[in-house]
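Request:
Um, any thoughts?
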Amino acid sequence: MPKVTIVQRDFSDFLYQRFIDAQVKSKARLSPSLLLSNESGINGDIREILGPNDWAKVCFDIPSAKVKSAELVFYVKGENTTQEEPLRLLINGHRMTHRQKPERMLTGGWDRARIPARYLIDGVNEIVFCGGGILYIDPGAGGQSSRSFDGGHTWHTNALGEEGEIQGEYLVRLRLKGFAPEGQLVSPVIDLLEATNSIAPRLELRHLRLRYEHDSPLGTKLNFEIRTGTTPAFSARHWTAWEADTRVSQPGRFAQWRATLSTAVANQTPALKSVSLEVDSVIQDKVPATMELLEVDQPDIVYSSYDFKYLAPHHRVDRLLKQYRLEEVVAAGKDELEKFALLRDWVHSQWLGWQSDKYPYCPSWDPLEILETTKGNWGYGMCTHYGATFTACAAALGYVARVLIVDHHCLAEVWSDQLQKWILQDPGPNREYDASYERRGIPVNALEFHQAHAAGKAHHLTINKLPQKTTAKMTNAWGGLFKRFGIPLRNNHLVEAEPAELFHGYSQYHWDGYLWWTVDVDPKYAEYSLQTLRPADFYWSVNQTRLYPQVSDEVGVLDIEIETATPNFSHYEVCIDAKDWERIEGPLRWSLHAGENDLAVRGVNTFGRSGRIARLQVRYCI
């Protein structure tokens, strides 16, 4: 068989973290922006007032100071304390005066100051805050923040706060407008037989070689690694480890490459233009003329660049289900959407929102604590708690859900097998909540809502308050909440309380553990590390299955490799020729009979819920 070459030039759907830019150019490069932070922003309520003698200092280790500029962001909880007396900044000894500009505050409670690039140096940079103003403290290990009580003559680490008794870091971050020092781009899994939605011949793969086109200015590097395997998704048991080479002998059918881009100077980046995979193989068995693939019904599976930690079966899950009789809550629903609406309405009705003036304790995101605290009037529950409770209850019922944060509001998204998409569910405390949001009768997700708002078309959306069977028109003002949105990268708060932001956005969002949507690789909200403009990082596939048929070494038999994106995966179920569903654990050998053969396969999670069915129909002539 002649050599086959697979060429890749569009990297926008590849996996990459925040240090890579592969969306806005026809090539992949390092991200042109880098956030430096010494803290995670768990606590945003410990206030420190600056004065003539009370100074604060934060140190940042800058890998390369050859940046265009920098932006200093520091959490002030939305307060403006520099109107009367300005804040003075010393950037490596260079003096600056800062007064807060409300128009630059955006909506997150963070103040911002532009720092000239000439003030910065390679290595450790000292930023001193003095004069007027305030800072906030995140308790922790500390080490990069220090306090002076004598106008900068002497400095104390781990002596923050009004009395100098707090160990931790100031909520101060530095956004550099220069290329990140290193980032990784990972390809999707590549079928070297190029048998997408077709029957693959049986081949002996002999050699795989990777070639690439790139630009690597002085001071930059681009390194490749390859791994291969016999399954369509990575499995340590069936795949090789990463190998720092561009040649592989006897590769498996499936391959994946990883490129590490790096630079020693922030004004230069390597750029990857294209990747070619050359495959040498020998045909062992062609697809016989007696086999014809008549129909393929299966989705493309997409993955997020970020790991998500799902709630799994646990004794606390059992308690939540039984104590609050959740199966009964949704039992009247005729389909999945009605069940979601019943659960959302139940969560909405469990307590009267907020009341923080009466009950000042703020519970965690654990739904058992939330329900017990709010129903016993031991604390308050805000929109975040409604979203977290819906998310956990849906997950306990076997659905896949997550908390969804927008601008000064919090709700949830849940995967709908019925619609094959993520959709919003808002169980929030006030009358305008307890709804899903729709366009032309189809529930939308946060990205669709955000795009409608950005286009000035949020008013085209409908508020559906099922199960009350009432609807209302969305307003552009209400749609403005979706100017930004983010998610925590887990939904297991029922069994793991931390890590999490304390008080959950009671006033602002300061935790640096959420993943935020951005429309620019140099983000508008400069204070957050985890930001993406790759849709699949938010809207990955759930409960979906794909089949990879290949000619077997046995006449009239197809080998079927199976890929699934099923959280808490338990097993597969297979149905042949519309007979009963049977449980299988892995790859399938499908014996064909004369005529039309039908195969259906689905994944099942550990809660017993099955996902979307993948189907093949093959005609076989004996």
Q: What stands out?
A: The first strand starts at residue 4 and ends at 8.
